[in-house]
Structures are given as structure tokens and as C-alpha cells.
Write a sequence for this structure.
């Protein structure tokens, strides 16, 4: 464990050295995601100027939902972005074999291989949104709440990573897994708004099937004192179970790979 | 591990790929999902050999013979369909991590270095991944910088390197953890003569100094001639020759060449002793080859001189390339050393 | 060379676009799915919004729904992706080869883009069906469709030349990813893909109208959604043609400068 942590640190250090060499790309990349989020937020702002609430949620409350989701997403974006390109960049070219002849875990190697700075913009935006919504909504700054919010973002991030791991593993069979990952990942768009706004079926899907709801709606509900039942506490457990399932599937895919090669 | 245990042991190794067959289009994709069809491809059919520690073995064969597939099984990347693999007494696939610490691999076509990182940073990372002791790492880095002439390359990212520079860097990266077994899959592909020489010298030196076992795959028989005392030739996933390099020459180098320079162009067909034939003819140049078990050089020369005015002539020894070409060319039964 | 032969050479490229397009089958379905998700979200979103107000910026629920659904149907179709194309060709070192072809480089890519727009529009039919399912009420007036088609084509051409100019940045940076994402975001908002420009506060709306992005979504869709009356079509078209002429000239000039910069560097 300690070995992996220090190895990760080294990978990260090298990555930043490269990024600093291409300072302009670094800045454009890290800020590009800010623009994407800004487009979404600006739309929300334009619309919410005209009406008092969306399904009983004020603009600031919506920003809390949006911010929690964006912060969760940024964790996947920064630390697990290589899952997106595993097929294209590693399996097709045979580069994945390199991981298999090294004495470390191939999944660790894959993830550590490229920290993605584009996610930093998302992280900053998400955090800022949560903090500013927190302040303007007057949510008390209790340690419990802060701890809860941090845990919610972490488990939200884990849910994003687990779902991407699950879909990226298909690369061992179909090589180009991006369309599969993208299709599942896209469902997080639903979770940018309060789930209560949707049809029951969609709500259930985003809670039990593709549980992005735990990255935004449920924790926001808890912080705002809205009653949505015990589900507000389920996030970490859901994340853990999903990670385990995804990791088992990954191992299964890896076994398939060693049977077929690239 | 005892001293006389082989470094690599392979018996009745087999690898069959199941290649999914798919009709084009979405319909095809859906159908393939529910009722997959496969075509079988036997890449490695039945291969057995064993390599004692410290040996350099040439592992050769035509394109698609199954060389890379064998190496992938030896490194633990692929699991064999059947058969047994032992590397330093371990099953490389089942004990992947333990095996990985002891081996080094070069896949000539691709790099294991990070594209954007300066070489020295890549090496630092690799040394940490393999947990090379820092003091030892420093020594080795110095040593390699000298023998592989890495000096200025250390600060360069791989993406800016030429092919030859890349391969030198690659070798350093592969050997920095002092593996006991090294697999080199076409390490000299696309390189010029000078770089090839350097690389061969480096491999030889590592083998001599550390007793590193080397399995070398190549299409350049110069590599084999310089480095290997033993050659394994495979074809269609089977071993067709396994033995000393010298034996190949002796046994299969039965043709020799003889070239004449004549005063006038050849006008009528030549009468030649049995076993000799014309293989090339230009203006005033005549190339022949003869089976030395059936005719001697002097017989052939005398026959030609009797029919033509010869200005000059020269004899050529069979070179490995043409011998191997002959073996690849289908002389399977001849090739098996009895 | 006769005009017909010249034309056929360029239309060859349009045809190629269609073939390449079909090769990426799975991508095609993924794109449809992504748009379907966005549509679904918008339907619920606007239903919830209009539960609070009858009219927003003068638009009733049905009108907004029509607009938003149609905008999703054609979202992204009018883009030419010139920035990505340049980025790719520069990275692979192919730009010099492309410039060596005995065809006008811009003309070739334009023909290619036209092919992409046509196949793009056709390929979105499943989304149109979904939109109808979600309550889209298409206009009855055939003229509205004609105006849509013309203004979409003109608007896409405007954006082609605009993207061409921005694409020239690729010659100066080594990576276009960040720039591309940024452009995508700006376009997403200012094209009116997410909301009709009418809903924006006055200053923002004017700003959006100065930028060319609205030409590929807002301008054509608002004919179909009944926001822009057909009678205004001539003015709109004229404005678009003016944009095209200006940008076509400017883009060629910028491009020649960019190419020179690269050849000087020897890249
Ligand atoms: N992952 C795979 N899936 C399906 N078939 C494969 C796979 N890898 C190799 N093959 C097939 O197995 C056979 C042996 O391939 P291999 O790469 O081992 O040959 P090789 O001897 O290394 O050839 P070369 O000299 O060209 O490198 C070939 O016919 C190849 O097409
Ligand atoms: Mg090979």
C-alpha cells in the first residue's frame, strides 16, 4: 500500500513536469472544462431568472446539486481518465502488454499512467459551486455536514470511476470501448438536476441501476434538510459495492485478455 | 533453485486463438453478441525446448510462425491453451508478478518508455517500479550511459528520439533491474549497421558479465551469427530445428556458389557436371551453384573453362541467410536434425 | 477542366464522407443515445419550469418545447470540426500532403463538410421520431421547412469558415484538445442549443447575436418553431450570405499566414 502510494506520487510528479513544459496546453486544458460547466450553469441561471423555483428547488439549491455532481465527476476525470482510452491507446497498440510484464498491478499502472489535468477545472468549479451555494443557503458549518459533504463527493467520485471501469473493461472484447463508456457516463446528465423532477422510472434507474443520484441529489437533499429517507446515507455503501463489482469484472476481462491477446 | 535447473522450460506448448467472426454493421454486432461464431487460429501448435541459464538462443521463423506468441506466453502476458511453461521454476502466467521481477522484455515495434518524459525520468520510474536499490540504480545508470552511449539522450523525451536512439534507451530500460531472463523480440528492426553492432555488443556484454539468459527473435541473421550459439527454428507453430548454429551450416549449407568472368558472352548452353546449375547470367558474367556432396569446385571450374575463355572466377561460401531461406522454403524434412 | 469535372471531383469528397460516416456505426448510435438523453432531460426540465409560468420571454410551453426538441435533433450536425481536422493532420504530419493535392484545400474540405451535413441531417431521423413522441408539433407551412433548410445550409457554411479561422490556431499550438473543448462549450451556449436566445437577458442576447454560433441552431430552428416568421427570411438569408463572404475571405488570408508560419518552422 505504502509502496503504491509513493509510486503514485512519483507518477504524478513526472506528469506535472511534462505539463509544465507545455504550459499553454495545460492552462487551456484545465480551463476548457470550466467553459463547459459555465455553459450549463449559465443556462440554468438564464432560465431561473424567470421562475421562482424548479420543482420546488431554488437556483442556489440547484447549484448545490450541480456542484456536488461536478466535484464528484472531477475525481474520475482527474484520476481515472485513462479508462476512457484503454482500448484505443493501450489495447489496440499492444501497449497494455507493457503493464503485464511489470511487477505491479496493471489497473494501478493504467490509472497512474496519466493524471488528467483537464479535471482540475471541474474540481475547482464543483467545489466553488458547493461552497458558494452552501454560504448563500446558510447551511450551518457543522463538522458533521462538512464531513458528510466530503464523503459524498468521494463516494460520488467512486461511483463515476466504478461505472467507467465496468464499461471500459469491455475493451478487452471490443477494443474500442468509448461508445459504451460514453453511453453510460452520459446518464450523469440526469443527475445535474433534482431527481424528483423526473418520472419514477428514471428516478429508480439513477438510484439503483446507474446510481449517479448518490453523487448529487441525495447528498444535496440531506444538506438541505429535505426528507428523502435513509437513502441519504447509502452513498458510500453503494460506491463500495459498485467498485467491488466493477473490479471483479475487470479481473474477468483481464483473464479474457490473457486468453486472446490484442 | 538448483544450479542445473533450466532457466526456461517449455513442453508441448500450444496457443489457439479464437477469432470472433462478425458480419458488418449493427445487425452483425448484435448477432455476434447473442450467437458468437469463432474461427480458430493455431498460432503455436506444439513447441518444446529448454534453455539452460546463461545461454543466448536465437528463436527464428517466417512471419506468422508463432514467435511473438511464444514470447508472450513466456512473459506471462498470454495464458497457454495447453502445455507447460516454466521460467526460473515459475509459471509465468499464474505467478505473473513474481515472474515479472526476474524478466525483461523488448518488443522491437513499440516502446515501454513514456513518450513525453525525458529518458532519465522514465528510467527513474521504472527503477522504482522494479524496486531497484537506489545505489545499485546509480551504478547501473552510469554503466549503461557509457556502454549504450546514452549521455545526451538522458535529457531527451522519447518522442524526439531516432529509431536507433529509441532502441538503445529501450535496452537500458529493460535491463535496469538486472533481469535474469531477457526476451528480445526483433530488437534490431529498422536499425543501421552501426547501431546494430552496438546493440549486439551490449547484449553480449550483459550475458557475459551477469549470466543473463537471452531469447532473441529476429529476421536479421547477422544478430544470430554474432550472438547465438544455438538456434531454434519454428514454422507454423512447431519446432523444425533446434541445435547449434554450426550444424545448420554444415548440414544445410550444401550449395556453394561459383562466379566466372568470361571473355565473350556465352553463346551455347553449357554442359555441367551433375549437381551444378546456372543461377544467373549477364553479359560476361556467369553465376553457378553446385551441390558440394555431388561435385567439387575444381570439377565445375574445369568444365566451364573447357567450354569458355575464363578471365577470372571466385568461390562463395554458403551464407546463413540463404541457408535459412532454404529451410523456410519448405525443406522441412531435411531440416530436422536426426 | 470543365466545370462538371471539377464539380464531380469535389462531390467525390462529399460521397466519401458518407462512407466514412457509416463505418463508425457504433459511434453513430452512441451519438443518438446522447442526444436522446439530453432530450429527455429537457422535456422534464421545461415541464417543471412551465409549471411556474405560462410564458417565458414571450414563449409558451409548446413553442419552447418545439424549439428545444428541434434544437436537440440538429445539435452538432452543422459543425465541421475543422479544428480537429487540422489538429489531426498536423499531428500526423499530413497537412503538407494535403496541400500538395491538385485541388483547393478549402474547397475540398468544404465539399467534405457539405456531405457531412446532409448525411448528418438524415441520420438524425430517429431523434425526430423521438421528438414527435415527446410532443413536438411541427409547423404546417411548407415554407417554414424551406427557410429552415436554406438557413441551416448557409449557417453551417458560416460556421465552416469561422471554424477554419479558429482552426489555424492548431498551427501554433501542439494540442488542440483544450481549445476544441472550449470552442464546443462556447458554441453550446451561444448557438442556442440549450435555450432559445430570446430567453437571455438583453445584453447577453445581443452579444450572442453578434457571434456567428447561433447560425447553425437558433437561426434555422426558430423558423420551424415559429419564433422567426417566414416573412423575415430574405433579411436573414442576406445577413448570412454577408457573413459567408466576409469570413471566406478572412479565413483564406489567416490560413495562408498560418501555413507560412509552419513552413518557416519546418514542422
Ligand atoms: N491476438 C491474436 N489474435 C488472433 N490471432 C493472433 C493473435 N496474435 C497472433 N495471431 C496470429 O498467430 C500467428 C502467429 O503470430 P505471431 O505474432 O506469433 O508470429 P511471429 O512469428 O511473431 O511473426 P512475425 O515475424 O511477423 O513477428 C499469426 O498468424 C497471427 O496472425
Ligand atoms: Mg513477431
Amino acid at each position: 500500500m505504502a509502496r503504491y502510494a509513493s509510486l503514485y506520487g512519483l507518477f504524478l510528479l513526472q506528469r506535472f513536469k511534462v505539463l509544465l513544459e507545455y504550459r499553454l496546453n495545460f492552462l487551456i486544458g484545465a480551463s476548457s472544462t470550466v467553459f463547459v460547466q459555465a455553459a450549463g450553469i449559465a443556462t440554468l441561471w438564464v432560465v431561473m431568472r424567470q421562475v421562482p423555483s424548479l420543482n420546488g428547488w431554488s437556483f442556489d439549491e440547484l447549484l448545490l446539486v450541480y456542484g456536488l455532481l461536478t466535484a464528484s465527476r472531477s475525481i474520475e476525470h482527474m484520476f481515472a481518465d485513462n479508462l476512457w482510452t484503454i482500448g484505443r491507446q493501450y489495447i489496440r497498440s499492444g501497449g497494455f502488454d507493457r503493464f503485464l510484464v511489470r511487477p505491479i498491478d496493471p489497473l494501478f499502472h493504467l490509472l497512474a499512467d496519466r493524471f488528467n489535468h483537464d479535471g482540475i477545472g471541474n474540481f475547482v468549479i464543483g467545489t466553488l459551486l458547493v461552497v458558494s451555494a452552501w454560504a448563500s443557503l446558510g447551511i450551518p458549518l457543522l463538522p458533521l455536514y462538512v464531513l458528510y459533504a466530503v464523503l459524498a463527493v468521494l463516494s460520488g467520485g467512486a461511483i463515476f470511476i466504478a461505472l467507467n471501469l465496468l464499461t471500459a473493461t469491455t475493451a478487452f472484447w471490443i477494443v474500442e470501448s468509448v461508445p459504451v463508456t460514453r453511453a453510460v457516463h452520459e446518464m450523469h446528465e440526469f443527475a445535474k438536476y433534482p431527481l424528483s423532477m423526473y418520472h419514477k422510472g428514471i428516478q429508480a434507474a439513477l438510484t439503483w441501476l446507474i446510481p449517479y443520484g448518490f453523487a448529487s441529489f441525495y447528498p444535496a437533499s440531506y444538506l438541505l434538510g429535505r426528507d428523502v429517507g435513509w437513502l441519504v446515507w447509502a452513498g458510500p455503501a453503494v460506491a463500495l459495492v459498485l467498485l467491488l463489482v466493477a473490479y471483479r469484472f475487470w479481473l474477468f476481462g483481464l483473464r479474457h485478455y490473457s486468453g486472446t491477446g490484442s | 533453485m538448483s544450479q542445473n535447473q533450466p532457466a526456461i522450460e517449455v513442453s508441448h506448448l500450444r496457443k489457439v486463438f479464437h477469432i470472433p467472426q462478425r458480419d458488418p454493421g449493427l445487425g452483425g454486432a448484435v448477432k455476434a453478441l447473442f450467437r458468437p461464431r469463432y474461427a480458430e487460429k493455431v498460432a503455436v501448435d506444439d513447441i518444446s525446448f529448454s534453455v539452460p541459464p546463461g545461454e543466448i538462443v536465437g528463436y527464428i521463423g517466417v512471419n506468422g510462425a508463432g514467435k511473438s506468441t511464444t514470447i508472450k506466453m513466456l512473459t506471462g502476458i498470454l495464458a497457454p491453451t495447453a502445455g507447460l511453461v516454466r521460467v526460473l521454476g515459475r509459471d509465468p502466467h499464474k505467478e505473473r508478478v513474481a515472474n515479472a521481477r526476474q524478466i525483461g522484455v523488448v518488443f522491437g515495434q513499440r516502446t515501454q518508455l513514456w513518450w513525453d518524459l525525458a529518458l532519465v525520468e522514465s528510467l527513474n520510474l521504472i527503477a522504482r517500479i522494479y524496486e531497484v536499490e537506489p545505489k545499485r540504480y546509480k551504478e547501473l545508470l552510469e554503466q549503461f550511459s557509457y556502454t549504450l552511449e546514452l549521455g545526451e539522450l538522458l535529457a531527451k523525451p522519447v518522442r524526439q528520439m531516432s529509431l536507433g536512439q529509441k532502441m538503445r534507451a529501450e535496452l537500458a530500460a529493460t535491463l535496469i533491474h538486472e533481469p535474469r531472463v531477457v526476451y528480445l523480440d526483433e530488437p534490431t528492426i529498422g536499425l543501421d549497421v552501426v547501431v546494430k553492432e552496438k546493440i549486439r555488443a551490449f547484449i553480449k556484454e550483459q550475458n557475459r558479465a551477469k549470466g543473463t539468459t537471452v531469447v532473441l527473435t529476429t529476421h536479421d541473421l547477422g544478430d544470430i551469427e554474432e550472438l547465438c550459439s544455438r538456434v531454434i527454428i519454428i514454422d507454423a507453430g512447431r519446432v523444425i530445428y533446434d541445435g547449434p548454429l554450426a550444424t545448420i551450416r554444415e548440414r544445410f549449407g550444401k550449395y556453394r556458389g561459383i562466379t566466372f568472368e568470361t571473355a565473350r558472352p556465352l553463346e551455347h548452353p553449357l554442359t555441367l557436371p551433375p549437381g551444378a546449375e546456372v543461377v544467373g547470367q549477364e553479359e560476361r558474367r556467369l553465376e553457378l551453384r553446385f551441390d558440394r556432396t555431388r561435385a567439387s569446385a575444381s570439377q565445375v571450374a574445369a568444365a566451364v573453362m573447357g567450354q569458355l575463355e575464363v578471365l577470372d572466377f571466385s568461390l562463395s561460401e554458403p551464407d546463413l541467410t540463404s541457408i535459412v531461406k532454404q529451410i523456410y522454403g519448405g525443406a522441412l524434412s531435411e531440416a530436422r536434425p536426426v | 477542366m470543365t466545370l462538371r469535372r471539377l464539380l464531380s471531383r469535389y462531390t467525390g469528397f462529399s460521397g466519401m464522407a458518407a462512407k466514412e460516416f457509416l463505418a463508425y456505426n457504433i459511434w453513430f448510435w452512441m451519438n443518438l443515445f446522447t442526444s436522446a438523453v439530453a432530450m429527455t432531460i429537457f422535456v422534464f426540465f421545461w415541464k417543471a419550469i412551465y409549471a411556474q409560468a405560462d410564458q417565458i420571454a414571450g414563449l409558451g410551453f409548446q413553442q419552447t418545447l418545439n424549439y428545444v426538441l428541434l434544437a436537440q435533433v440538429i445539435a452538432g450536425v452543422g459543425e465541421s470540426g475543422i479544428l480537429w481536422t487540422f489538429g489531426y493532420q498536423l499531428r500526423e504530419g499530413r497537412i503538407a500532403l494535403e496541400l500538395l493535392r491538385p485541388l483547393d484545400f478549402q474547397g475540398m474540405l468544404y465539399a467534405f463538410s457539405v456531405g457531412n451535413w446532409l448525411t448528418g441531417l438524415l441520420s438524425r431521423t430517429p431523434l425526430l421520431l423521438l421528438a414527435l413522441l415527446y410532443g413536438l408539433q411541427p409547423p404546417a407551412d411548407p415554407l417554414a421547412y424551406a427557410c429552415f433548410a436554406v438557413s441551416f445550409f448557409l449557417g453551417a457554411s458560416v460556421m465552416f469558415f469561422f471554424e477554419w479561422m479558429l482552426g489555424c490556431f492548431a498551427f501554433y499550438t501542439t494540442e488542440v484538445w483544450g481549445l476544441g473543448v472550449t470552442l464546443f462549450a462556447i458554441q453550446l451556449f451561444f448557438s442556442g442549443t440549450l435555450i432559445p436566445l430570446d430567453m437571455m437577458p438583453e445584453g447577453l442576447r445581443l452579444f450572442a447575436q453578434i457571434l456567428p454560433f447561433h447560425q447553425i441552431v437558433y437561426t434555422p430552428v426558430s423558423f420551424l418553431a415559429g419564433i422567426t416568421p417566414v416573412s423575415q427570411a430574405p433579411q436573414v438569408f442576406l445577413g448570412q450570405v454577408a457573413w459567408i463572404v466576409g469570413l471566406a475571405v478572412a479565413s483564406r488570408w489567416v490560413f495562408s499566414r498560418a501555413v507560412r508560419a509552419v513552413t518557416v518552422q519546418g514542422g
Notes: The CA atoms of residues 15 and 115 of chain C lie 6 Å apart.
